[in-house]
Every structure is written in C-alpha cells, then in structure tokens.
Design goal:
Blueprint (H helix, E strand, L loop, with lengths): L15 E5 L4 H17 L3 E5 L4 H7 L5 E4 L2 E5 L4 H9 L1
Parallel strand pairs: 1-2
Antiparallel strand pairs: 1-3, 3-4
Helix pairs in contact: 1-3
Length: 90
C-alpha cells in the first residue's frame, strides 16, 4: 500500500515523573523545567515525594531530583530543558 494511504501511527502516551522531596532547591528548579516543557508539548507529568514512598527513597535518595520519562530514568540532579524536550519528541 502506498505510504500516502497508510494511517499514521497513533501518538504514544507519554508521562514525565519528577521524584523530589520537600525543601530541595534543585527539586524546585527541576519542577520549573518539567512544568514548562510538558506544558509546551502537551505531555502530562506527575510529582512523587520520596519521603512518602520507601521504595523510591531507597532507590533514589542520593540522586534527587530524578526525572523519569515513561518510567525510565532520564536524568538526575539537574534537568536540561532541551534534552528533556528531545526525549519527549522521540
């Protein structure tokens, strides 16, 4: 079949997760970047507090803030706006 008549693949559902803790200045900065990029691209995001989830605390306490894209670790400590935008564009 000609490519002109093929249906485009449906867009993948995306989700960005910001793992953070209260009183963390790096987490506050990361949230600003996540909110901005996700709003521009129409991608939902969620925040998770490591002080309320023992599994997240055990896994990420030395790396926060941590950003997951579709459940996979994308970055930690500092969030690069262009890199996140590129990851969400894939």
């Amino acid at each position: 079949m000609s490519p002109l008549f093929r249906r485009a693949a449906p867009p993948r559902d995306r989700l960005v997760t910001l793992i953070r803790k209260p009183g963390c200045h790096l987490c506050d900065g990361a949230q600003v970047v996540v909110e901005k990029v996700c709003a521009e691209l129409g991608v939902p995001w969620e925040g998770k507090d490591i002080t309320e989830d023992r599994e997240l605390y055990d896994r990420y306490w030395e790396q926060i803030p941590v950003v997951l894209v579709d459940g996979r670790q994308h970055t930690f400590w500092r969030v690069d706006e262009d890199r996140l935008r590129k990851a969400l564009g894939d």
